[in-house]
Amino acid sequence: AVLAAVIYLFRLQVSDYLQYIEQVLNPVYSVQYSDEQVTRAYEIELSKNVSPEEYRIIKDSVSAFTAEHGLTASAIYECALPECGLNPFIIRADGKAAGFIQFTPAGLSGSGVSLDDVKGFCKSRNTKEIMRLTGWYLRSRAAGRKLTTGADVYALVFAPVCLEKPDNFVLYSGINNPAYYLNRGLDGWERSGSKIIRNPAKIDGKIEKKELNLWLEYHKQRLLFKK
């Protein structure tokens, strides 16, 4: 019972070091790929989760987003990968987010659509409505600001306030801050040579924009390595 109590008290630190050990044993390297290779890897993953018709709708929607915002298709997919695993019909386990970019009640503000509506779209596989909402969100939250990379798109989805901010901009801080606690897994990311790792020694109670970008890069490189 004493051992269990100690483990519970230090469960976050234990989890951090277990994750670190896993990264040491199975490192993820930052490798340069062509945009065509990256986009193809994303679309292969997407095709595993959708029907051919759903795949066509999503590809056409992504093409429309890229034309509107001057982005590459990979920039859109790069954001969707950690959000939904490129399964646009995913409803988060706690029920607080759903869809291609994991809409939340706050994210849906101004859309005229509720989270329950989005969950319904996911359950009925209403691809057109999910992608329409995705386009609405990007347009409304960008509000004319320029998007250039997948990290920009993810910044817009995760925390619009950090778009166009410097890499050292702090998104959330304070171990007692619920916003920090819920996103604590973004704290501590760094480059170690050509590897991307989450270093327990760098978990300092604040999440900077550069750590968010590295976390996003980690997911992309891990997928590309599998391909």
How would you describe what is shown here?
The relative contact order is 0.14. It contains ten helices and four strands. Helix 5 crosses helix 8, helix 5 crosses helix 10 and helix 8 packs across helix 10 (209-226). Strand 2 (189-192) and strand 3 (195-198) form a beta hairpin. The strands form two sheets. It has a two-stranded antiparallel ribbon. A two-stranded antiparallel sheet has the order 2-3. The longest helix is centred in the N-terminal third of the chain and has 18 residues, at 52-69. The chain is mainly alpha-helical. Helix content is 55%, strand content 7%. The termini are far apart.
Key features?
single chain; 227 residues; mainly alpha; 4 strands; globular
Q: How much of the sequence is in beta strands?
A: 5-15%
Range of helix content = 40-55%
Q: What is the makeup of the main sheet?
A: 2 strands, antiparallel
Number of strands: 4
In round numbers, the mean pLDDT is 91
Query: What does the radius of gyration come to?
Result: 18 Å
N- and C-termini, Cα separation: 45 Å
Question: What does the overall shape look like?
Answer: globular
Structure annotation, total helices: 10
Low-confidence spans: none
Biggest sheet strand order reads: 1-4
What oligomerization state is this entry in?
single chain
The structural class is mainly alpha
The SSE order reads: HHHHHHHHEHEEEH
